[in-house]
Amino acid sequence: xxxxxxxxxxxxxxxxxxxxxxxxxxxxxxxxxxxxxxxxxxxxxxxxxxxxxxxxxxxxxxxxxxxxxxxxxxxxxxxxxxxxxxxxxxxxxxxxxxxxxxxxxxxxxxxxxxxxxxxxxxxxxxxxxxxxxxxxxxxxxxxxxxxxxxxxxxxxxxxxxxxxxxxxxxxxxxxxxxxxxxxxxxxxxxxxxxxxxxxxxxxxxxxxxxxxxxxxxxxxxxxxxxxxxxxxxxxxxxxxxxxxxxxxxxxxxxxxxxxxxxxxxxxxxxxxxxxxxxxxxxxxxxxxxxxxxxxxxxxxxxxxxxxxxxxxxxxxxxxxxxxxxxxxxxxxxxxxxxxxxxxxxxxxxxxxxxxxxxxxxxxxxxxxxxxxxxxxxxxxxxxxxxxxxxxxxxxxxxxxxxxxxxxxxxxxxxxxxxxxxxxxxxxxxxxxxxxxxxxxx
Length: 441
Known about the structure:
Elements: H1 5-13, H2 19-37, E1 40-43, H3 45-56, E2 70-74, H4 101-108, E3 112-117, E4 129-130, E5 133-134, H5 150-157, E6 163-168, H6 174-179, E7 183-186, H7 189-192, H8 196-199, E8 202-207, H9 210-220, E9 236-239, H10 252-267, E10 271-274, H11 281-298, H12 309-323, H13 329-343, E11 348-352, H14 369-379, H15 384-389, E12 393-400, E13 407-414, H16 419-432
Parallel strand pairs: 2-3, 2-6, 9-10, 9-11
Antiparallel strand pairs: 1-3, 4-5, 6-8, 7-8, 7-12, 11-13, 12-13
Helix pairs in contact: 2-3, 9-16, 11-12, 11-13
């Protein structure tokens, strides 16, 4: 079994583990399994070993929170000597000469970046395949690992690395975490917003344990206090399994996961009742407009003629949205007012993470726009509205499907600033209902 990030860092700080050995073992696992899993766009084998040796020689080794921990980074971040492809052949391949904020914070904390993980073009879709590979679900490789942080989720769920960085614009951390049986945290917009998709996109961690999730988000946010997972006092939790606005049917096993989690949280002393926000229909229009226009704005720096067929259609639609003036702050304000109304009487909302099962793994990038849109919207009914509101949300594994073997999960949502509460509730679920950490276990 692969050690957790907490265990690795503690052992490295104590001089019981060598960062170079830890990194070489991670690279061996990647070499053995990634041909099937398809998690990485680029493995930094030589560079990672060199950087691990540099970590081992650091005079502050004994105080580094991620000392010697191998980490995978989503292919959207600036890193010295690398380029972020955003899953596309249409962007610049010029290597940059400085780390962006995310990589700089990881390295300052002692992490070793072993590679860049696969994403769909411009991170639009909940399936992560590119012309050179497909990120597959380690629990059942017939299925996609999700997206857009699908490569990161696959790398962690396959036990290749204990931690991975992701970003979430409409569920892009939580959806692949749910599909791959991981903990995935989307922080609030006030904590780790990256500015993309008109404020909907944020950075977040994917991990196999709540403690590892808390550790990584504390580093990404430069907020050491987040690493301490609290034991929350009893809170009021509203529970809903109805897809907001659309009311599409949710598979029985995904609904059952919510009932299971609710039972464990009730046993921990929390008050559970059926309840949900009054979702306005305009909410769907507002977040969809940003999902269309966000990639269109990003594509200005790309060679549009080289974008995939589905992406070109998406960009055309996004530009129409922008020209029509459909990115309106009042649409978001109306939704936030409804969310605040709900959270005035509840501290947390409990829902399924997925509104449908994952799609089969395949070369989705070769298909048309509608062929990608329809399955994407069918499975992401519970996630995007919290990007639109800017509220924190966490995905926690609950069980596995008896039919497909795929994991089941729940989503917990809190008001802004509620990341520690969500981590504490997730830890209570983890203690009451432990999950297998990886598909290797």
